[in-house]
């Protein structure tokens, strides 16, 4: 198996056609077909279905595509680490959960362009469960995750502690006229939450169990956009940080209430691989993310979040 075969395979999948991939790669199509055939023989599996409309990945091809992407990224990172000068340069891919990107993505991207013009910062927004797998495989260099006690495979740096609030449509009947609710009251409502392996859900379930409580009526939605639409349709309430729905709150479409007895919060951390050495650029973006998070917390631009170590 050769690196060029991995590059060829990824290009074919990305472009959905042998002819288009050959054109982009500047490789004759028969040569591309031969390399693909050798790769499939080496692996002992068919990776692509050929049809008149193009090519489609087999189940084996889908699995191999993820690994091929990760390997090619690690090779690019290794090359960048060797060629970098004292001035950080290269590509850094950072994964953000949906519920964090609204607060952190644009400020971090702006700061990176200002401080490190030779670094290309690529931001990807994913469910937390997906980000964990991408970080393990090396497809992303860094990921913002939530400390649920399961992050031991990663090197972690605390960014902030973020309060979770009870959020509903402004005119919803849930606890009208009140500024706060108990956790038991919040859990008793019809809640719209991510699935058990994503986002705030593991933290909510853990705090509920510790308090001898449990969620009762839950609608599971793994998309912030769809979740907000469901809130606005008055299908239920949610328990989230304020940041993802700040625009709707400012427009008067939603409101939030504090949760107490007990309060509920999550620890936001920056994660990196323990096994893959970071490039100079990755280290620079890591430090910048910590600084940007602290500035956002201190300036009130990240609602409900407190920089770690703050009183």
TrEMBL record:
Keywords: Activator, DNA-binding, Transcription, Transcription regulation. Pfam families: HTH_1, LysR_substrate. The keyword DNA-binding applies. The keyword DNA-binding applies. Residues 1-58 form the HTH lysR-type domain. GO terms for biological process: regulation of DNA-templated transcription initiation. InterPro entries: LysR_HTH_N (IPR000847), LysR_subst-bd (IPR005119), WH-like_DNA-bd_sf (IPR036388), WH_DNA-bd_sf (IPR036390). PROSITE patterns: HTH_LYSR. One of its GO terms (molecular function) is DNA-binding transcription factor activity. It comes from the Bacteria. Belongs to the LysR transcriptional regulatory family. This is LysR family nitrogen assimilation transcriptional regulator. It comes from Pseudoduganella lurida.
